[in-house]
Structures are given as C-alpha cells and as structure tokens.
Design a protein that fits this description.
Blueprint lengths: L1 H10 L7 E7 L3 E8 L32 H11 L3 E7 L3 E9 L5
Antiparallel strand pairs: 1-2, 2-4, 3-4
InterPro entries: BphY/WalK/GraS-like (IPR050351), HATPase_C_sf (IPR036890), HATPase_dom (IPR003594), His_kinase_dom (IPR005467), Sig_transdc_His_kin-like_C (IPR004358)
Enzyme class: transferase
Protein name: histidine kinase
Length: 106
Amino acid sequence: MMVILLDNAMKYTNEGGHIQIDCTQTNSSIRIRVKDDGIGVKGEDIPKLFDRFYQGDKARSASEGAGLGLSIANWIVEKHYGKISVESQWGEGTCFEVILPKNQRI
C-alpha cells in the first residue's frame, strides 16, 4: 500500500517537487499521510480514484498504468479494517491519508 501511494506521488510530481510522508499515532490508531505538490486531481475525478481501472484525466494518465494501484491500496487498507481518503487541488497537489486501527491483528 505504501509503495502504491509513493509510486503515485512520484509519477505526478515534477522533478524538484516535494513528497512528504507523515506518520502519527493515537491510543487506537496509526495515521499515515503521503502528500505531494504535484499536478493534483480534478474534483470530479476524486470520487472515482479508488475504482478499478480508473485512470482519470488524460493529463494524469500520460504515464503507464492499468488503473489498479489505488483500488489495490484501498483493498489492502480495508482488509486491515482501516480507512483511506484523499484530498486534492488541481495544480497544487494531493494528500492521501490512511488510518489503521492499532488493535487489529494483521
């Protein structure tokens, strides 16, 4: 799941851009954030990002891919009883947040 999120951040962030990984914990969960200042995602594409085979805007899908990565990341997070969300601004960057419960056996 981390490899998928980092791969997406690298694909859509220009050379010299920033990718930030942040991990914090509470008593009950771990929060992981992968944030970039890349090209971002258009608002109308955000609800479909975790759909299988979805590749979004043609500008974003210029790189090779089958549109499965985020669907797989979502599946992994769900199998660990977690949640994944995304915030993005077109032209400004994207932030994926994963929250995983600490008390689940993996």
